[in-house]
Specification:
Elements: H1 18-49, H2 52-63, H3 66-79, H4 82-105, H5 111-138, H6 145-173, H7 176-196, H8 204-207, H9 211-224, H10 226-241, H11 244-247, H12 249-256, H13 261-289, H14 291-310, H15 315-342, H16 349-375, H17 380-401, H18 404-407
Helix pairs in contact: 1-2, 1-6, 1-7, 2-5, 2-16, 3-5, 3-9, 3-16, 4-5, 4-7, 5-16, 6-7, 6-13, 6-15, 10-15, 10-16, 12-13, 13-14, 13-15, 14-15, 14-17, 15-16, 16-17
Length: about 425
């Protein structure tokens, strides 16, 4: 459907900008392929090793590079042409997917190989994502940045809905190699979309800033801004204590619920459906409550919903629970991400996005591996519910100590003091 014919919902307003709409569609097609690969490899590792620790470790390897490389990716994205930079990263990801596909068709797939490819893909993704995120921010006006972030999360979760469903069919009919083939081909949709986009002109002075100075400047700005610092701390704890529910879905479906690949796909799909539903409503909710109050409510309720999900006795109950958990997760994370970028001028948005990715990657890789490792030595439900309870305690403590951070709205971008080249 053409962007200009979409319903006039507040949450869909970024679709009125053709460049944003084109990149959004291309990313959706790519993410469908990515989720086909994710489900196929998650089931393969879980069934091959029988260990939650291995499943968590493979997921962690794809996020671990963000701990070191995210600030570099952000500085590079603010230094070079973002469209070309994102296109190069997409080509490298397609090449890695192709290697995995060829190995699968030749019967040479193994858990160590999957781990190496996951790590390399994580490196490329970490270096590329800040450029992609900042490019999307350039394609909409500042007042629609939160909406564009939510819709970007929505397309990711639409892929989460469609990809696992297709993966279940493909795995049943032909095995993991065909799911990997679909993922390899899907990257070309992003390349076509990037080729069609004409981003706004960049400030030439931003490209001449030395790389290390650019990294240091981004870190300094984040450190000195109390709102950004609090958002990054919150992101780490969400990623470490709650978000592992995403990577441990195969373990929960297979070990706790006694199901298989179809159940894994169902749970992943339901999480995506919840996220997409939330993306359609997040604009209205933000206008009703304000972004900061909405973020506070989402941070409080996500721990409760996470605990209820892990207590689910049957697949049907778990599917319903993860739908609402996925919705809550999107509202919270899109708000945290947009808050980082809204606090700074456009020239620093990629660097703020990269710091957000770094903290998210560090927390998630640590949390999904550690919770998986503990689940092999203790009961999975006990480990995950305890993690959710710890997060809830942290949120309630923060609300008591810093109530204003949950009530007062963030300053708009225009009110943020501009940063000169000497700010670092």
């Amino acid at each position: 459907m053409p962007a200009h014919r979409l319903p006039r919902l507040t949450s869909l307003r970024p679709f009125e900008y053709p460049g944003y709409f084109a990149v959004w569609v291309g990313a959706l097609i790519s993410n469908i392929g990515t989720w086909m690969e994710t489900v196929a490899m998650g089931v393969y590792v879980t069934q091959t090793t029988g260990k939650a620790e291995w499943t968590g470790a493979i997921v962690a390897l794809s996020f671990l590079p963000a701990v070191v490389l995210a600030p570099v990716g952000g500085a590079l994205a603010d230094r070079f042409d973002r469209r070309a930079y994102a296109g190069l990263g997409t080509l490298l990801q397609a090449a890695l997917a192709a290697v995995l596909m060829v190995l699968a068709f030749r019967g040479q797939l193994s858990v160590p190989v999957i781990g190496v490819i996951s790590f390399l893909n994580g490196c490329v993704s970490t270096l590329t994502y800040p450029a992609f995120s900042a490019l999307l921010a350039e394609l909409v006006p500042p007042e629609d940045l939160h909406l564009s972030t939510s819709l970007n999360s929505a397309q990711f979760n639409l892929g989460r809905i469609m990809g696992p469903t297709l993966a279940a069919v493909v795995l049943q009919a032909g095995g993991p190699a065909w799911a990997l083939l679909a993922n390899t081909l899907s990257f070309f949709a992003v390349l076509v979309a990037l080729w069609r986009v004409v981003p706004p002109a960049r400030d030439a002075n931003a490209r001449r800033e030395p790389l290390w100075d650019g990294i240091r400047r981004g870190i300094t700005v984040a450190r000195d801004d109390e709102d950004i610092s609090l958002v990054l701390v919150a992101t780490f704890f969400v990623a470490a204590l709650v978000a592992p529910f995403i990577g441990l879905v195969p373990v929960f479906a297979i070990r706790e619920l006694g199901q298989g690949a179809a159940a894994t796909s169902l749970l992943v799909t339901c999480q995506g459906a919840g996220a997409v539903t939330a993306a359609l409503c997040v604009g209205t909710l933000a206008e009703l409550f304000g972004q900061r109050k909405l973020r506070g409510y989402a941070a409080t309720t996500i721990a409760v919903l996470s605990g209820v999900y892990w207590l689910a006795p049957t697949l049907q109950v778990a599917a319903v629970c993860i739908f609402f958990l996925g919705a809550n997760y999107l509202v919270l994370m899109s708000s945290l991400s947009a808050s980082c970028q809204n606090r700074v001028p456009r020239e620093l948005q990629a660097r703020m996005g990269s710091l957000y990715s770094m903290v998210l990657g560090a927390g998630y890789s640590l949390g999904v591996w550690f919770q998986g490792a503990l689940a092999d030595r203790m009961q999975l439900r006990f480990v995950t519910i305890a993690s959710s309870a710890i997060f809830l305690a942290l949120v309630l403590t923060t609300r008591l100590l810093k109530p204003a951070r949950f009530e007062n709205e963030l300053l708009p971008q225009a009110d943020v003091q501009p940063f000169s080249d000497s700010a670092h």
